[in-house]
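cron nightly-structures :: item 1 of 1
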Amino acid sequence: MDKKKLLNEKGGFLGWFKSNWSQNAMFSTIFALVIMVLIQCVVQTINIGSVGGMFGAMGRAWLNILRNNTYAGIIALGMCFIIISGGIDLSVGSMMCALGAVLMYLITPSNGLLAKMGITGVGAYIIAIILVLVLGMVFGEMNGCLIAYGKLPPFIATLGTMKIFRSVTQQLTKQFNPEVPDGFKLLTSAKIGGQVILPIIYWVAVVVLMHIIFKKTAFGRQTIAVGSNERAAKLSGINVSRVKRRIYALGGVMCAIAAVIYVARIGSMDYANAGSGYEMDAIAAVIVGGTAMSGGKGSLVGAFLGMLIIGVMNNILNTVGVPTFLCDAVKGAIIIFAVLLQKKDNA
């Protein structure tokens, strides 16, 4: 059957487009990203005043978009697993802040824990990163246990731990003045081809790894099963409580990776504000990327593309001078619109 006949049978191009838009989440996500990029090109051309200057501005803008959204983008990958399973995690931003504080306490060369033990340099960095990853898994397990065994709604459980992580971190770090060693900063500041792109490479590598876990492992299939129908998953022999616990633990590991990259790139952490709003960015990216809020359906690549859409949107709004607070309002509107589209498709 040739392409023209197929289009006619589906009602022409509009019918084909409508069918893909409503049934193929990846198609709609990619289309939305293309539209955002085209708008970005127009805005940059108007702002610069020439088409030639637009290309250079677009290159710089995209490097900034990718670098600046690395932390929330990695957190969004863990959030994608959580939402596919039918849950949500509001604590991810505060958890990243707490893990970053622990990391700086470990690696500070003057009065850090590892320095007091006589461990410095690369060895200290490796030990600190491993410990933070393990602690991130433990923090995530805490959320998972409250939800799986305590039977708390994910919203309530993670809202509580969000407050705990942030407030305890601020209390314990009041008298602590950390210093991030220059050697540790090289994890993200080392240049490749004259550009600082290591954070972007880390993000893409984690996307690939998480996509493989989701698509090629029993854990990924169990995540979908739990989100699709928890009772049916139990009847099929899946240990739902254990799967939920592991899903939130994986989300904690993503927060730990984001914390390591954040500390290495920024060189410090504002305990009152670091990670604030990342939960909203992560949720927005996941929903815009086609993951159903009801669970059971989603894509890690979609979450990655969703974060790019959010990043491009922020770049456009900043370029035209829209205030930061209104940018957040647009994110909220995007979440509402994406969920409304999902409900319409499911009707």
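cron nightly-structures :: done
The two ends are 31 Å apart (CA to CA).
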